[in-house]
What does this fold into?
Amino acid sequence: MDYKALQKISYGVYAVTTWNQGEATGCIANSAMQITSEPATIAVSINHNNYTHGCIMETKKFALTVLGEDVSPEVIGTLGYQSARDIKKFESLPYELKDCMPVIPEGCAYFTCDVVDTLETNTHTIFLGKVREAGVLSDKNPMTYAYYHQVRKAKSPKNAPTYIPE
Amino acid sequence: MDYKALQKISYGVYAVTTWNQGEATGCIANSAMQITSEPATIAVSINHNNYTHGCIMETKKFALTVLGEDVSPEVIGTLGYQSARDIKKFESLPYELKDCMPVIPEGCAYFTCDVVDTLETNTHTIFLGKVREAGVLSDKNPMTYAYYHQVRKAKSPKNAPTYIPE
It folds into this structure.
C-alpha cells in the first residue's frame, strides 16, 4: 500500500468545539463533510484520544468552525497541538456564542449541530450532526489541508488519521 | 440557516467505481475522507438514487479514484451527469484494473476498498471502506471542489449533498 496516495484526498481545516462541564473546549479536525442537504447534516471524524471526543459523547452537540487561510497560529496551536487534559484551551483563546455553542470568531463559517448518529471504528468516531444553525463569519478563503501543509508548513498531529510517523 | 456557509467546507472530486453484474460502473462524489490510519479506512457518502449505490450495497466493494485538476470533461460528464440506468458508462470511458477493481487511469491516486460498515441517513449512505490497495497514478494536482466550481465552472448534480436548487 502506497500511503502517499492517502495524501491526495482533499480536506479543509476546522475547529470542532463543544462544552466540558460548562467550559468551552475543542480541537482541530480535517475530516468533515456534508452528508445530506434536507435536513442539512455534517459528518466529522474525531479520534477517541481527543478530550473533545468524550465531551461530544456527553453533550451530543458540537460546533464546527471553518478556518481560513489566515487563521492565527494561536488557534491551531492551542486547539490542535495541546490537550484539554493539560490546559483550559479557551482561557487564552477568544470564542463567540452562536446558538449557545462556542465558535471561533476569526473563522469563515460556523455550524451548530446535534449528534443524531455515530459510526464507530477502532480509533475514531464519525459523528453525524444535524445542523441547527449555520452562518458565514467572513469572506476569507477557507483553508484547505493542502494549503495548511504546503504554505503554512504544518505537520499532522498524532491523533489525525493522516498522521505519518517519521 | 445560511446555506452559503455549507459552501465553505472543502472537498476533493472523486470517481467511485464498482461492478454491476460483471460490468464496471461508477459515479462522481465529493464526500470522501480518511477515517483511520491503521488499518487505513476511507468513508464515502453516496446518494441512494445513484445507481452505483445499489451496486456497492451488493458487491460490498468500491474503488475511489482521486481526480486531478485537468480531468477530462468526459470523465465528469459520463460518471457525474449520466445514470447507469440509461447508459453503460464504461463503454465509452477507459478504465484500468487495480486489485480487480475498475479505476480511472487519468486520476492522481486510487484506493480499492472493502465495505466494513455503513451509516444510513434519509438520502445518503456513508460507506466505510477498508483500504485493500492504494497507489499513486500521477503527480498532478488533485482537484478540489472549489476549483471544480470556480475554475471549471461546474454545477453540483442534483444527487450531491451540496446541490442548491436555483
